[in-house]
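In line with agreed milestones, the collection of sequences with tokenised folds has grown. One record among many is set out beneath this paragraph:
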Amino acid sequence: MHELGLTRNIVSIVAEHAGRRRVRRVRLAIGPFACVEPRALSFCFGLAAEGTVLAGASLEFLEAEGDAFLIKDYELEEVA
């Protein structure tokens, strides 16, 4: 299941950019020919995010063209 490796990379990239701020949501753009199963990504995301600033964040999917697979954006919690 390559989705676990992909999900670990997503968590690592977003966590690096988020710094110490908690992440609320991550949106991925996935094309029909990306050879990625969104359900498998969703399952792996919860496991990969445990103990990170992404713990509890939602994972959303956007339709893309071709074989596109990218982190579209992410939402951070507001600083109090």
About this structure: The two ends are 39 Å apart (CA to CA).
